[in-house]
Amino acid sequence: MKKMIHMAATLAVLAASSASAATIEMNVNGLVCAFCAQGIEKRLRKLPATADVVVSLEQRLVAVALKDGQDISDAELRKALTDAGYKVIGIERSDESIAAVRARVKQDKP
Amino acid sequence: MMRWSLRIAGALVLATPTYTPAKPIAFADGTTVMAEYGAGTMKEIQIFYAPEYNYSLGGGHIEYDSVETPASQSITYLRLNYLLHRWNLESAQANIFVWGGAGSATGNTFRGAEFAGNAGAQADYETRRVYASLQTDWEHASDFSHRIDTLQLGLAPYEHDYDRLATWLLVQARDYTGGIYRGTEWAALLRLFKGGAWVEAGVTNEGKLQAMAMFNF
User: 0.95 cut: is pTM over it?
Assistant: First the structure.
């Protein structure tokens, strides 16, 4: 019983953490040109939970801002990127706003 | 010069013959419109749609003018471009594309219209600083047969990002069979693109213009 309560609590924390993520950042291989970015952005903007998208070739980064209270699973994101022709290496969720991600990416440019 | 192949890519788009563009398929659910003028030996317009990232369908019209003889041909065609394999590397991408098509050809060395078939392939490797592609495009009808092999090597003076203009300097070598041009034609090209717009222009070793414009949306 104790174990079940602990598991339930852990799941609740994970769910809350996922739901509160403002932005999902993906490290993507094969990002070398504007067409790559254009195709990925077009694909991700079709997902109903997507509020905004930032693509940085320099950082090999694709960031998705979520609409309030909505989420996109890792599996959905990987499928979207695979269907666009690219390979997702890593996915990270954070509370950072998409504006902050955009500013960080710009700041990191050489 | 280019024959109906080359462009497409991109999403089709880009594609075909004469000067090979970057890729015959641009991106999934993307439409590509392209126009090209190749050193007095070819003129072409194309439109392609890519339902998925690995294939595109479309059509176009190409006109070939031989610089060696008075022969010329016009071909209106439908074409399928297919991405055979892609390698997504950490800071690079490599692709192998193949394509095939069929159309109706007319010319000044034969009467009426005849069936024309097209097939080609392209291998490319690209980082944000280096570009290399090798393409072969073959077009055949009962009264003519052309094959154009194109090698492009490019260097970007700076690494562009999505929101920044991309600039490429390219050297191109093209070899023709079928009487359009004798020997290997060299060209120096400047390629610019940003977002879905791409323009490219340059001159051949004979001082002739080669130019292309492409839009992806």
Answer: no
Q: Which residue type occupies B197?
A: A
Does residue B136 lie within any of the structural domains?
yes
Domain boundaries, chain A: 2-107
Q: Does A80 touch chain B (CB under 8 A)?
A: no
A1 interfacial to chain B (CB closer than 8 Å):
no
pLDDT in tens, A72-103: 999 999 999 999 999 999 999 999 999 999 99
Question: CA nearest A29 in B: which residue?
Answer: B90
Q: What distance in Å separates the CA atoms of residue B126 and residue B4, rounded to the nearest whole number?
A: 24
CB contact under 8 A, A35 and B127: no
A81 reaches B (C-beta below 8 A): no
Q: Is residue B2 part of a domain?
A: no
Residue in chain A nearest B27 by alpha carbon: A39
CB-CB neighbors (< 8 A) of B84 in chain A: none
Query: Given the structure tokens 């001082």, which residue do they identify?
Result: B207
What's the CA dihedral at B64, B65, B67, B69 to 10 degrees?
Answer: 110
d(CA A40, CA B30): 11
A10-54 per-position pLDDT tens digit? 444 444 444 446 899 999 999 998 888 999 999 999 999 999 999
* Architecture category of domain A2-107 in CATH: 2-Layer Sandwich (3.30)
> In CATH, what number is assigned to the domain containing residue B137?
2.40.160.40
Helices (H), chain A: 2-20, 34-45, 74-84, 98-107
Interface test with B, best of A27, A32, A89, A108 (most B CBs within 10 A): A32
Would you say residue B108 lies in a domain? yes
- For the record, the structure tokens of B92 come out as 């690079």
State the CB neighbour count (10 A cutoff) for residue B215: 17
In this prediction the ipTM stands at 0.77
